[in-house]
Fold this sequence. Notes:
By secondary structure, the protein is α+β, with helices and mostly antiparallel strands. It has 4 helices and 9 strands, in the order αβββββααββββα. It starts with 5 loop residues before the first helix and ends in a 6-residue tail after the last helix.
Amino acid sequence: MSLADGLELLDLIGRQVEVHLVNETSVTGRVYTVDPETHNFILQDSTSTTFLPHSNIVKYTVLSDHVKNHVTKVTLADLREIDEKYFPSTVRHISKENCEKLKVRLVEHLQKHRVPVELRGEEEVVVAGVVRCRPPYDRNSCFSTNDIVLGRIQNILATFDVS
């Protein structure tokens, strides 16, 4: 598959992919993150983390595990482990119960500001159809390909108390 746009790229997070490069090699690993604007990838495997700038990428392929259309996703625990390893000072542990309470408060806060909110999965909150928020539901845990809407939502979240 060639490089996609926007939120489609964000759906790759946690998936096993093979990224084909301009030097005719490829790199395989789980997508730790991808920048939907620059299309830069960070892949993680059991031994290393690899940064792949968009200018080096020809295409990517989502890999399956011997079952057609089956893609293995990284669990939330896996992502937290990676965060602790590479970003120890920024990780904030939230219990499942507190996460749910925060999510409910966030939805109420956004609805109070008359912002449309949609729940997706156990933890993700989609705001105004284009901004995704994940725990800990602060202004830094939101991302979108629409910088204008993202900025406005982050301004609203600046008044949201996550403690």
